[in-house]
Structures are given as C-alpha cells and as structure tokens.
Amino acid sequence: MKNSTTPTTTAPVPAVVEGPAPPPPAETAAPPVARAKRSRTILVKLAIGWLAVVVLLAVFADLLPIPGYDVRIGRPAMGPSWDLASLLGTDGLGRSTLSRLIYGARVSLAVGVVSVLIGMVIGGVLGLLAGYLRGGFEKVVTILTDSLLAYPPLVLLLAITSTLGSSLRSLVISLGLLCVPTFTRLARANTLAFAQREFVTASRALGGRPLRIIFREILPNVVLPVASYAFVMAAVVIVAEGSLSFLGLGIPPPSPSWGGMISAAKDRLATQPHLVFIPAAAMFLTIFALNVVGDRARTRFDVRESAL
Predict the structure, then answer these.
(1) How confident is the model at residue 263 (pLDDT cuts 50, 70, 90)?
(2) Is there a domain that residue 112 lies in?
(3) Phi and psi for 95 in degrees, rounded to 5?
(4) Phi, psi (5° rounding) for residue 275?
(5) Which residues constitute the domain of residue 145?
(6) Would you tell me how many other CB atoms lie within 10 Å of the CB of residue 189?
(7) What burial class does residue 130 get, using C-beta atoms within 10 Å of its C-beta: 0-12 exposed, 13-18 middle, 19+ buried?
(8) Which stretch, 33-37, 49-53, 240-244, has highest mean pLDDT?
(9) Is residue 184 part of a domain?
(10) Would you call 183 helix, strand, or coil by DSSP?
C-alpha cells in the first residue's frame, strides 16, 4: 500500500532589488548647514580684518608716509597713479585722496565710538535704575525715552547742530544724545529680565542694598547685550555723521570726513566718479563690517544666555 502525501505549496519569495541605500536625513542636511556656518565664519573674519585695518590706519595716520590731508600735491582731480601720495588720485583742490580718506576714517571712527560710549553710559545707567527701581522714576524715564524716539532723528540733529554750531564737539554731543534712548530701553528690558533671577533674589534676601545689587549682580549680565548692540549703533552714528557732513553741518573744512568728501565731490560725479565712489565704498564696507560683527556678537550672547 502506497503512502499518499498531500503536496504542499510554498509562497514565492519576492526578488530583492539591489541598489544603494538612501542616505539618512542627517547626512543630506549636514553639508549645507556646515557650508553656511563656514561662510558666516569667513564673513565675520573678513569684517573683523577690515575693521582692524581701518582702525590701525586711523590711529597711526601720522606715522604713515603720506602727506597731510590739507597739502596740495598736484593738479585738481588728478587720476590714480602708482605714487603712494596719489595712489587714489587727488580731490578738487589737488589734495591726496588717500590721505584724506585715512584721516577721514579717524574722524568718522572717533565720532562713532565716542558718541556710542556717551549714549551707552548714560542710557545704560538710566535703564538699569529704571528697570530695578520701577515706580515713578521708571515712568519719567519711559516718557522721556519715548518722546526722544518719537522725534525725527534727522530734525533733532539739525536742531542741535544748528544751535551748538558745526564742530566736532557739538557733533559728538548731539549724536551721543541721540543714542541715549535706544540704550536706555535695551538696558531697562534686560534689567527687568535679570531682576527676577535667583541670584538677585538671594542677594536681596541677604540684605544687599539696591545700588550694590544693580552694579554687582545685574550690571555684569546687562553689559553683554548692550555692548553687542554698540557695534550696530556705531554704524548708525557713522551714517548720521556722513549725512550731516553731506548737508554741510558736520565737521567743518578743511578737516576731512567721509561724508564731507562725498559732498565736496558730488558736482564732479559725471567727470570724476572715483572721488565719490572711493569714500562711499569705504563708508559702506565699514558700516557693513560693523553690522556683521554686531550680529555675530548678539548671536554669541543669545547662545550663552540660553545655556544659563
């Protein structure tokens, strides 16, 4: 007798298609992020390098082998040549454009730095006191700050400079007063945030006086965002100084400034455009570098603040 067996059927095995495995999402997203970060790093280094060159040239202008900014070296509106004194040509009075550009950088940077320091010190102190003391003092500071911010900046500058006269001191004072409201609001906002921190509460519970808490506990933390914003404000001040010099209310001649150089050469734009474009390019690169460095500084502060 034969054993009968039931035939069994097996399901067909699907064929495996060989091919490269798709890369994980992280591998496809990492290179663009890395390239963007590398580009930002290179841009920041270039900005810092440009600012370092401008500052060094402005500080050591008297030691450079260039003529004085008011010395005539050739015929008016002469084109660039290989001679160092006339490397960028001459202006409408035959003076070295390179020399006036370097000495103009000294004036523009001095106005920007000193004005921002005045605004940062006065505005920072007012913002610290208003943010910590609160009450009536805060209301008075807020009203004054909002009133100055509501007034058109250019009109305010024109009013102050026309009253005090066209001089370096009056220009620095007027631009410094214009910076005060911005730094006041910035310092007040950061003071309000840090005044609720545990270390401030502990210092207050241990009997610390208000002034000691403000300048020993809160001030070191508020300095970082205020100082990082100072680069952006310096760029704004340089633009304002150039605008006033272009309107004839800035640094009086023969002292050079970038805005004054542009204003003096605006009538020669059709025939000698380099007299306008050279100081305009120097101002543009300096303002752009200050904004790049300021953004980088604020980014570093934000990262540090989030890690607290």
Answers:
(1) confident
(2) yes
(3) -90, 155
(4) -65, -25
(5) 93-306
(6) 13
(7) buried
(8) 49-53
(9) yes
(10) helix
